[in-house]
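Lab notebook, bench 4. Still working through the backlog of constructs that have no structural model yet. Next entry is a single chain of 395 residues. Request: give me the structure tokens for it.
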Amino acid sequence: MSQPPEHQLREPRQRKRGLENDGGLAVRAAAARALVPVITGKGSLTGLDDHQVVARDRALFKALCYGVCRTLPRLEALAAKLLVKPLKVRDADVQALLLLGIYQLLYLRIPAHAAVGETAGAARLLGKEWATRVLNGCLRRLQREAAGLQDEVDQDPAIALLHPKWLLKMLQQAWPDDWRAICDANNMPGPMTLRVNRRHGDREAYLDRLAAAGIQARLCLHAPDGVTLETPCDVQLLPGFANGDVSVQDEAAQLTSVLLGPTLAPRPGARVLDACCAPGGKTGHLLELFDIEVHAVDSDAERLARVEDALGRLGLAARLAHGDATARDWWDGAPYDAILLDAPCTGSGVIRRHPDIKRLRRPSDIPVAGPGRQLLPEIDSHDGFFYARLKKRLG
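Model written out:
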């Protein structure tokens, strides 16, 4: 049984007593609240707001939320072993705290006394002081019996591989030679990859700027404008980010605009439709690469506003339209030279970037039936893995 590598975070040093010092209780209580919609199947981590905790706790907060979602099948199986009886539905926040405690003990380099004590104590901030004893007892038992309990729950391959049974079965059927490697890749946190704005300079020069700022990075293998950071960081620490010198975008996503090069490069002023354009990464990349007219359409007004913000930071402009790309009320009637369509999908290929998908998706969300039809995960940043296989499969 292999465990996925996870953020090697340590608990911040103990702070002086005061508003910003709660001994780590607040960050765990906030993470529990954020996880309740996910574990109850009513919401996702999309738009997770890390500003609900103090700045020094934000990295830990995000690591806790995403880490629990990434390892949820295993954590829930262990929680069921630790609890004398299941918690009530109204106590989903306590269940979330238990999952957080298990995750810290098994996956993070946080001292056990902090993982147990601060997680149990966080129940008081949720108004459930009675749960401190329950959580303390469960987590201390896990400390004593961790090896045996893990071996017991890992007898189920779906739990050991951290995937729901139905999805594991579909991957096995669609990718009989690669399903285990796909699961392992899904269980790894995605890297932070940047797209250097070609209008502002080349990526080799930007690597030097990163090095001068003490940020280690390497050139992407496939995307000609891509740079991958060795360790993720706040975008505000990136040299020139506010001026549009660089954007955050997965390597495979960068390939989309590059592939349109043979069509668009010889045709200045070409009309391009970017349908389902939000949040605007590909829109911006198209405008960085080519002297073209881009019409960007999205059905979500709030996400479309993010496209406008992204283009403003880059100093670029497109004609934005709020509408359904399958309708025509937004269209001026003139033909397009190229259409880029990143249509809504199951997200089965971006699980490591959005691990809550493993809880929120259902078998009915992925229609795979009939001869010759297979579950084809969209390319995320497993680039070296999926790029070669999709190229072989699709010819």
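Notes after review: Strands lie at 193-196, 217-219, 226-229, 246-248, 271-275, 293-298, 319-322, 338-341. The longest helix spans residues 131-153. Flag for follow-up if needed.
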